[in-house]
Amino acid sequence: xxxxxxxxxxxxxxxxxxxxxxxxxxxxxxxxxxxxxxxxxxxxxxxxxxxxxxxxxxxxxxxxxxxxxxxxxxxxxxxxxxxxxxxxxxxxxxxxxxxxxxxxxxxxxxxxxxxxxxxxxxxxxxxxxxxxxxxxxxxxxxxxxxxxxxxxxxxxxxxxxxxxxxxxxxxxxxxxxxxxxxxxxxxxxxxxxxxxxxxxxxxxxxxxx
Length: 209
Ligand SMILES: C[S@@+](CC[C@H](N)C(=O)[O-])C[C@H]1O[C@@H](n2cnc3c(N)ncnc32)[C@H](O)[C@@H]1O
Hints:
Layout: H1 6-11, H2 18-28, H3 32-39, H4 44-53, E1 61-65, H5 71-79, E2 84-89, H6 92-101, E3 106-109, E4 126-133, H7 142-149, E5 155-161, H8 162-165, H9 170-179, E6 183-194, E7 199-208
Parallel strand pairs: 1-2, 1-4, 2-3, 4-5
Antiparallel strand pairs: 5-7, 6-7
Helix pairs in contact: 4-5
Bound molecules: S-adenosylmethionine.
The site of S-adenosylmethionine has 23 residues, from helix 2, helix 4, helix 5 and strand 4.
């Protein structure tokens, strides 16, 4: 197995600082798809989309949180072409790449580390978030807003990278949410994430109560 890609290593060291994250992804946006898909064998969008479509209708309204360049949108549309998908992200250049894919209805700037002011409660039939709950990006508190904007009964699908799962409190957060009666855990599955490197994630499927 090769060592972790230097760009990926750098990404985990951004410390959750929005300016550093934005600058990093602005610089990476143009080559992100090629680097992630071809060099690293990134399958986060595929596994997240596949999990989500098992739990939503053909015409559901979906939020892709931290949509990046739109890889998740493409994977969703491949599986259910009549979904309506909105995307949010912190980085304008990543949103521009998403826009060029043509899979999204609306694409808006938003910081998932805080309140998603632009989005009302109980809007989405399903929420998906791939590649954002990882070291140096958005912490477990970011899940609360995804729950707020999802309808009761809606699925929320998250990938959480191996190094962040326990160390950054995601495992505890998922358990606490269930204890508080906010979400039901449908499944938590360890899954390959970067198939050309020795990197795994937890694929988490929650149902909003
Ligand atoms: C590894 S990429 C994942 C993109 C896409 N979901 C995928 O799977 O390819 C991480 C994305 O999270 C976004 N991001 C990081 N911190 C964020 C925050 N606080 N709020 C919203 N988006 C954020 C970055 O701009 C970047 O587009």
